[in-house]
Write a structure and sequence with these properties.
Elements (H helix, E strand, L loop, with lengths): L17 H16 L5 E10 L4 E13 L3 E3 L1 H11 L2 H21 L5 E5 L2 H4 L4 H12 L6 E6 L7 H13 L3 E7 L5 H5 L6 E4 L1 H5 L4 H16 L3 E4 L5 H9 L4 E3 L7 E2 H12 L1
Bound molecules: ligand C2E and calcium ion (CA) (3 copies).
């Protein structure tokens, strides 16, 4: 930063801390990162323990910053949401994930890919067109695409989001509720939201020693059954997690125990190993 000279940094105030300066830099660098191809996607498997088979993959975005190295989505997604850059970024992610999913399919791995969506996408009036464009461009069947939304996004304009979700589901796309159990009024929303899957937040898996957490998971699983929803547990890291979760009736899992997020070029090898 020192070598760049005074003028370039005139926007920075003296009293700004490290985090604020870094945020401003990232915000500025985001604009070029897409055209410079600094983003890539890692795919994390979801595993069905009942059938002992692959359930699908989640697309997780990564930014390889030329100076700072890998920046976590926890850091750059909020910035991208603030600046609106999340829109072109998500369109890229959607298309890239669909293209990858098509490659797997052609190779005989008929598994879905899920993409995380921010609220901002639902406020554009173009989401449905963009999703359709991505599918058509790569020739992927809609039933192989899943969109992950969070509870917190729905508090803005539930009717409008319900309408868009209905439309997406009519196209054959799946919808899942991410981080379930950490937001607001989760249970009331389930009645109104057209979704297919609940993803139990990692916090529940993390704390399975607690009898109250176990009671909550059990209740969620029973409720999900009645509502014809699938339940996926996130953050499964240890064998004890699996034992607890299956006892509670949850059979689809995602977490480091089964597989970390992986670059696209090692996915095929990973799948072949798992299947042999
Ligand atoms: P998420 O959607 O809840 O994704 C799960 C996060 O948990 C991922 O972090 C994943 O790497 C991590 N994880 C998976 N298994 C385990 C485990 O067993 N233990 C632990 N400790 N962690 C595990 P990641 O990749 O850093 O992503 C963080 C968040 O960034 C995501 O949380 C999601 O909210 C957001 N994100 C990532 N990609 C995108 C994207 O393309 N669009 C949007 N809007 N958000 C994204
Ligand atoms: Ca997710
Ligand atoms: Ca999650
Ligand atoms: Ca999360």
């Amino acid at each position: 930063a020192k070598s760049l000279g005074k003028n370039q940094y005139c926007v920075y105030k003296e009293e700004m801390g490290f985090h604020e300066v870094r945020k401003l830099e990232l915000e500025k660098d985001l604009q070029r990162a897409l055209e410079d191809q600094q983003f890539f996607i890692e795919y994390q498997p979801k595993w069905n323990v009942k059938t002992n088979s692959l359930w699908g993959f989640e697309a997780l975005l990564r930014w390889k910053h030329p100076r700072m190295g890998i920046v976590s989505p926890n850091e750059f997604i909020p910035i991208a949401e603030e600046t609106g850059f999340i829109i072109p970024l998500t369109r890229w992610t959607l298309e890239e994930a669909c293209r990858q999913c098509k490659v797997w399919n052609t190779a005989g791995i008929a598994q879905s890919v899920s993409v995380n969506l921010s609220t901002r996408l639902f406020q554009t009036d173009h989401l449905i067109d963009w999703v359709q464009d991505a599918l058509e461009k790569v020739g992927l069947e809609p039933c192989l695409l899943e969109l992950e939304i969070t509870e917190s996004m729905v508090i803005y304009d539930i009717q409008d989001i319900v309408r868009q979700l209905q439309c997406l589901r009519e196209m054959g796309i799946k919808v899942s509720m991410d981080d379930f159990g950490t937001g607001y009024s989760s249970i009331g929303l389930l009645d109104r939201l057209p979704i297919d899957t609940l993803k139990l937040d990692r916090l529940f898996t993390y704390d399975l020693d607690s009898p109250s957490k176990r009671a909550i998971i059990h209740a969620i699983v029973l409720m999900a059954e009645q509502l014809h929803l699938d339940v996926i547990a996130e953050g499964v890291e240890h064998e004890e997690h699996i034992a607890f979760l299956t006892q509670l009736g949850c059979f689809v899992m995602q977490g480091y125990y089964y597989g970390k997020p992986m670059k696209q070029d090692i996915i095929m090898t990973w799948v072949n190993q798992k299947q042999s």
